[in-house]
Amino acid sequence: MRTTRFVVLAATGVLAVTGVTACGGKTEDKATGKANAVTVKATDTACEVDVTELAAGQTSFSVTNSGSKVNEFYVYAAGDRVMGEVENIAPGLTRELRVELPAGTYETACKPGMSGRGIRGGLKVTGAAASVAPDAALTQATASYQRYVTSQTAALLTKTEEFVAAVKAGDVTKAKALYPVARTYWERIEPVAESFGDLDPKIDGREEVIEEGMEFTGFHRIEKDLWTTGDISKDGPIADQLLTDVKAIVAKANAEKLTPLQLANGAKALLDEVASGKITGEEERYSHTDLWDFNANLEGSKAAIAALRPALEQRSPDLVKQLDTEFANVEATLGKHRAGDGWKLHTALSKAELKELSDSINALAEPISKVAAVVAR
Amino acid sequence: MSEQDTAPRTATLSRRRAITLAGVGVAGVAGVAAGTAALVRSPDHAAANDTAAGGVPFHGAHQAGIVTPAQDRLHFVAFDVITMDRAKLVALLQEWTAAAARMTAGKDAGVIGAVGGMPEAPPDDTGEALGLPPSQLTLTIGFGPTLFRDAQGRDRFGIADKRPAALADLPHFAGDALRPEISGGDLCVQACANDPQVAVHAIRNLARIGMGVVSVRWSQLGFGRTSSTSRDQATPRNLFGFKDGTANLKAEDAGLLREQLWAQPGDGPDWMTGGSYLVTRKIRMQVETWDRSSLAEQEQIVGRTKGSGAPLGRRDEFDEPDFAAKGDDGQPVIAETSHVRLAHPTLNNGARLLRRGYNFVDGSDGLGRLDAGLFFIAYQRDPRKQFVPIQTQLSRHDAMNEYLRHVSSGIFACPPGVRDAADHWGRALFG
């Protein structure tokens, strides 16, 4: 059962950080005026970025996918803080990413098949580096995370459309393949999505969440039909409703102004999701694709922490180090269970393997639970 | 056994006396068995009602174990009846009643006892409570809906038309993740005591006596009562670390007990008048994720402060919550989704419950998580007007649900008390 934990704190404002609000405004680089242009050639096995050094300022990455898998391109700052990303680059397409990069060391990554750490490369940016005031670091955190939410919701919408189309076409194989992919984008921003009361159970409610007399709809209803009977001939209306609900939540998520404290709590809430529902196989009880969700929750948590990273580095560098170590540990532990572009089924893991994952999540969740207090002080 | 000289005439003595007799027992088997029975039976009747010595009276208008000040420990058991023979079931209820009367008085389950019987025969008490005082043991029986009509719809014992309307099957609540194998049951017995060994002893002996007639369906151990049923008791804490049961119905609230707890004449079948309806829910708590949540979030979810237990915005534990109060931000001080608000009588047509739940820890779950939570127990006059609407509210809106899983559920009709030695459990129902 998902609830509105995110909202509870937001609404009551017990810990509200004063003077910090999301800064929606985009800062165009007025000083230099002209943007760097970088070309990226992505294939299923390579990620060729035509430069390794740049001048600070606006940069435009033009990413061409000449492979056979759908690709993604990311620019990461330290700790995998997403500076910018383009999702869903279909084979043959070229997409553009515009991002402002201050001086520093970055990594670029293509993710053929849209999973894993991706094919990484170094990128050094030199030139004038503006120092960031503590409060400004928090302001930037929310702006940075909001960009992440925007990119994830866009992909959520695209993938849900594809999933819904497959369901309505009666294409069970395709729908099964798309199911965990569409949910990846949902699971990455789950705490944001969950803050919209009634929509969440409609989209993501599990069978037992439904009260007597209410209809069981959404992803998990279709999951059940796909994996138990394989009969989705009557799921058209449910699929349509799912898309309508996802559209509504995407609009709301993009309009939501998050606080830094919500980022901190969201990062923790995502790991709680893993600890209480994914590790047990409770969430994806028919498809057993829990490890997809696990990974997406982890990535979402990491994105929220990464957005807060500059502020955390100023306030508690030791905590940042601990988080880096523990994130790496969970990723390594989970990484043992990759299968192709995705993940093994929950049912394929032994109890000992699940225990090891559970321990790694707890080891990470403990320091993450300390982030909110650091942000609030 | 020098204490025996100075000790008051408590029920404790009966178990000690049985030990003494064990030494004599080798002499003549038959004679000793009879002698033991006589001795165990005779002198300690007065002690049974000596509450100061740790005994809770078994006989009375209502069953003990409901408004009795909540003891520290629980062993709860639900049985399936495995015979179709009504006479066998009634005979068992008579036998159980006699054993319950003895055990709650601190005596052995059977007339012969744990020791001193025929060497060739198994003792009629299992013996692990020898030497222990009654420890305020109470045994409370309840009848489940399936006793009246089983899962196949059969009226096995000719009592289907005596099923009270208030003993309705509970609806499915949002979020229920019930496991049938630890839910329901034809009969239940709640054993509460201040010593776990005494509670376990009582259930173990009833289960043994019932072999062939009933079969244990599930059972639950509990520790650390999670509510107070008397004003003399301090409010205990649940495994979330919060005081629980502050607003519980208490034994002293005579008027409220009539209105909210005891079935009144005309409520349903006569055999239930003076009885009460019991709802059990095993509620697993996700303690690890709870422990990572901030104090502010925990308090917002509960609607009370963790330290004093005062409602948010008030000072003392027993201050009435002010649900209208708004904070500087214009939001309610006690959140709309808080447990205290949603469970409060003012939001539930005045409905209240007498809760006497217990904490449980059934070890760990293999993933490093405590298998722990609350074994919720609530008594009431009519679950359709009390537990069901309250739980409907909670299951829909309670922010605490994020940390809870309801895994077992039961509903039972607990008849009025056993009047005297001639009366027995279920007499009015089967009479």
Automatic annotation (TrEMBL), chain A:
Domain Imelysin-like, chain residue ranges per copy: 141-370
EfeO-type cupredoxin-like domain span: 29-115
This protein's name: Iron uptake system protein EfeO
UniProt signal peptide: 1-22
Keyword Signal assigned: yes
Organism listed in the record: Micromonospora mangrovi
Localisation per UniProt entry: Periplasm
Keyword annotations from UniProtKB, A to Z: Signal
Highest classification ranks of the organism: Bacteria, Bacillati, Actinomycetota, Actinomycetes, Micromonosporales
Gene: efeO
A Pfam family it matches: Peptidase_M75
Family: Belongs to the EfeM/EfeO family.
UniProtKB/TrEMBL annotation, chain B:
Subcellular location: Cell envelope
Residue intervals passing through the bilayer: 18-40
Gene Ontology molecular-function annotations: ferrochelatase activity; heme binding; metal ion binding; peroxidase activity
Protein EC: 1.11.1.-
Function: Involved in the recovery of exogenous heme iron. Extracts iron from heme while preserving the protoporphyrin ring intact.
Lineage: Bacteria, Bacillati, Actinomycetota, Actinomycetes, Micromonosporales
Domain Dyp-type peroxidase N-terminal: 63-223
Cofactor(s) this protein cannot do without: heme b
Domain Dyp-type peroxidase C-terminal as annotated: residue spans: 235-418
GO cellular component: cell envelope; cytosol
Keywords: Heme, Iron, Lyase, Membrane, Metal-binding, Oxidoreductase, Peroxidase, Signal, Transmembrane, Transmembrane helix
PROSITE patterns according to UniProt: DYP_PEROXIDASE, TAT
Cofactor annotation comment: Binds 1 heme b (iron(II)-protoporphyrin IX) group non-covalently per subunit.
Reactions mediated catalytically: heme b + 2 H(+) = protoporphyrin IX + Fe(2+)
Matches recorded under Pfam families: Dyp_perox_C, Dyp_perox_N
Organism superkingdom: Bacteria
Matches recorded under PANTHER family: DEFERROCHELATASE, DEFERROCHELATASE/PEROXIDASE
Gene Ontology terms: biological process: iron import into cell
Listed name of the protein: Deferrochelatase
Family assignment from sequence similarity: Belongs to the DyP-type peroxidase family.
NCBIfam families cross-referenced by the UniProt entry: Dyp_perox_fam, tat_substr_1
